[in-house]
Give the backbone structure.
Amino acid sequence: MPEDLNWAIGGEAGDGIDSTGKIFAQALSRAGRHVYTSKDFASRIRGGYTAYKVRTSVDRVESVVDRLDILIALTQRTIDENTDELHEGSVIIYDGERTTMQDVEIPDEMIGLDVPLKSLAEDAGGAIMRNVVALGVACEVANFPIENLDSALEKRFADKGQAMVDNNCEAARLGQEYAAEEYDHEYDYDIETTDNDYVLLNGDQAIGMGAIAAGCRFYSGYPITPATDVMTYLTGRIDEFGGKVVQAEDELAAINLALGAARSGARAMTATSGPGIDLMTETFGLVATSETPLVICDVMRAGPSTGMPTKQEQGDLDMVLYGGHGEIDRFAVAPTNVAECFWKTVEAFNLAEKYQIPVFLVSDLSLAVTEQTFPPEAFDMDEVEIERGNIVDEDEIDSWLDEQGRFQPHFPSADGISPRAFPGTEDGAHMTTGLEHDALGRRTEDTDVRIEQVEKRQQKVETAKEREDWSYREFGDPDAETLVVSWGSNEGPLREALEYLDDRDIDARFISVPYLFPRPDLSEEIEAAETTIVVECNATGQFADVLEHDVLERVERINKYNGVRFKADELADEIEAVLSPQEVQA
Amino acid sequence: MSSDVRFIDFKSDKQPTWCPGCGDFGTMNGMMKALAETGNHPDDTFVVAGIGCSGKIGTYMHSYALHGVHGRALPVGIGAKLANPELEVMVAGGDGDGYSIGAGHFVHAVRRNVDMSYVVMDNRIYGLTKGQASPTSREDFETSTTPDGTNMPPVNPLALALSAGATFIAQSFSSDSQRHTEIVKEAVEHDGFGFVNVYSPCVTFNDVDTYDYFRDAVVDLDETDHDRHDKDAAREKVLDGDTEYTGVIYQEENSVPWEEREGLDENMAEIPDGAPEGAMDLVREFY
C-alpha cells in the first residue's frame, strides 16, 4: 500500500476549486510524486458544493480511499460533506476572519487552522488569491518544499505575466509563514520529493492525445459532460497536425460529419456521453453496413436520461454492445486507466481501419476527470504503430475491379475484408449505402447476396478474433480460489484492494478486461475458480450478465450505482463480505 | 483526370425505379450535366443522399457516393469535403429529408457555407411512403395523414436559408432541363454552399403541384431585372408566397467558404506510418 497523503480543497462551485486543486496536483507531480485526483460534485447536501481531491505518494496511486488528511474548507459544508473521511489528526484549513466560517466547528481530535486567507491574499495583491494562500498553509502542514508550488504557479499563470506569477508565489509564502508563526502543532505529514519526472493528465486528454498520435485528423462532436474535454483538448492542437475539430449542431450531425470524413479517407472520431450515444445510435448501422472505419468514444456518466451528468456509472455496456436496430457488427474496447486511454485510442483507430468497422472506445467519468501521473515513457510516441488495412491506390485498384471494370467496395473476400478506395482514386468510383447491397455497393434484396454480405461482415469479426490480441490484464495470485473480474476504470481501485486483502490473508486473482467485444473467453478461468466476483459500476451487472452467458455459469456480483466510483478500501471490504457471508449476517 | 467528361459518365448502369414521369429524372439529369459541364470527374466527385425518392440518386449516378440515413446527408457531405477539400461534393435531398427530419442540419449547413452544392427535389409530398404531407405541402393539402389539410403553413426553405446567412439561393423546375442545368451549374461553381430548391413534381401522389401548375406559375428571375446580389430584393422574393420564382435569387459576391476561412487545404487521408512528428511535445505539455 502506498504511503499516501490525501488532500482536498472544497467550497462552492465558482470558488476556483478545480484550478487550485490542479495547481497543487501539478506541484506534487513536479516534485516527483505520484498523484491521483478525483472530484466531488455535491451529494448528501444539495447545492453548489464541489471539491477537488488529491491522493499522492512516492509509489503509484490508482484509486481514491475513504480518508482525508488535509482539507482546505472554504465553507462549513465542505467539512460536513467529508466528516466520514476526516480522522483524528486531520488538518482543516479555513478562514474564520471575514467569511461565513466565523463559527466553524472543528470536530474533536482534528486540528483546525484558522488563517486569514482573504486578508493575506490582499496583502499579496488581491483577495482572489486566497486559495493560493491556503496552498501555502498546506505546504507548511505537509512539510512540502514550497518551491514546487512556485513551479506549478509559474506554469499556471505564465501567460498572464510575471507579476501575476510573483503575486501568487508571494501569496503562498504569506500563507506558509502565517501557519508557521501562529501555530506550533506537530503534524504527522512529511511530503517526500523525488527526482522522477512525471506528466499529469486526465483520461479525456489521453484520448485526445492518443487520437492525434494515431493520425486522427477529423474530430466532430457536440459538447457534453464528461466528454467535452476530449474536444477542448483537440481544439487547436489537432490543427498543428493538419486536422480539424468541428463543433456540430447535435450528435446526429457529429457522427455523420465523422462518417463523411472517414469516407474521404481521414481517420475520424467523435466522442460523447450516454445521451449523445442515444442520438448517434441512428447512424451505427450505416457506419457498420457501409463498412466505414470510425471511432466512437462514449465517456459514460450516470443515466438513464439526463441521469446524474457529473456522476460515475458504467451503465452503457449493453448500449455499446447491442445498441441500434438490426444486427450491427462492431468492436468495443474499454481503457482501464488514464495511460490506457491513450493506447486503446490508438488501437481503436487501427482496428477500425483494418476491419472497416465502427469501434467503440468506452471510457467513463472517473477516467475523464481523474488527473493521474505517469512517467512520460508511458506515452512513448515511437511505440505508436499505424495499421491502415486494405487501402488501394490507382496502381492496385485493377485487381479489385469486376469484369466490367467496376470497383467492388464490399467484395466478399475469404477473410471478409474488402478493399477501400478513397474518393479521388482513379477508377474507384463506387457507392455505398445503408441498404443491403452487393459487392459493388448497390442496393439489393436478392436473398443470396444478402446472405453473402451478412456472412462477409461476420467473417471480418471472426478474422479479427483470430488475428488480434484480445487478452485480459491480470493481477494478484494466479492460483487463488477467488477470481475477481472487472472492466474499464475499476482496475486501479481493485489492484489496491488486492493489497488490502493480502494483508487480511485473502488471496485473489484479478482479471481486468479491456476488450468488451470481441472479448477474452474466460471459461477456463471462471471454471478454475471457487468463487468468481464481477465488479462494476452499475445496478444490474451488465458485464456479469455477459460473462454468465459466455461461460454458462453463475457469478457473484458487486455493483455500485450511487454515482461515486469504487474506492480501494471499500472494495476490499465488499470482496471479503462476498467470501464470508455468515459474518455479514452476524 | 481527363477533361472531356460527358454527363453520361456520371450515369450508373442501374435503371431508376422512380415512377414514369417523375420530376426526379429531370432533376438528376441536370445534376449530372452540371457536374460534367463544370469539369468534374466521377472519380473526384462525392455524392451524398438521404432517404426518400431523392435518396436513390446515388444508385443511379456514377461517382463516389454514400446513401445515408434519413435527413443527415448534409453533415456527411460536409465531413467528406472538409477531410478532402479537393473533392467536388454534391448533396441530394428531398423536401422531407431536408426540411423535416433534416431541417436542423439544413440551417447549420447553410451557416457553415462549405463549398459544396445541395440540390433538393421538392415535390411537396412524401412519395416513397405513398402520399403523406411533407413540410412544403400546402396548408389545405389533403392526404391520408392530413384529411383536413395540414392546417400549418408550409416551410419556406428559401427564407430559412436567407435568414441563416445563405450565400447562394436558387430555385429551378426539373422540367425546364436547360435552365435547371444552368442553375445547378451555378450552384456547383459558387464559392460556398450552393443551394437549389427544385420543383420536381410527383405524378403519382400530388395532383396539386403538377407540371401544369408549375409551367403556368413559374417566373424566371433571369427574365426580370432582379439583382441577385441585392439582399433586400432577395428578401422580397423569398417572402412572396404568391409567385413560384426560379433562377438565382441570391448570391453573395464575396463568399468565402468555411474551409478556406479555417485554412483547411490538406487531404486528411494522408498520414504518416507512426505518430506524427512532434507528437512527443504533446506529452511534455503535461509536465
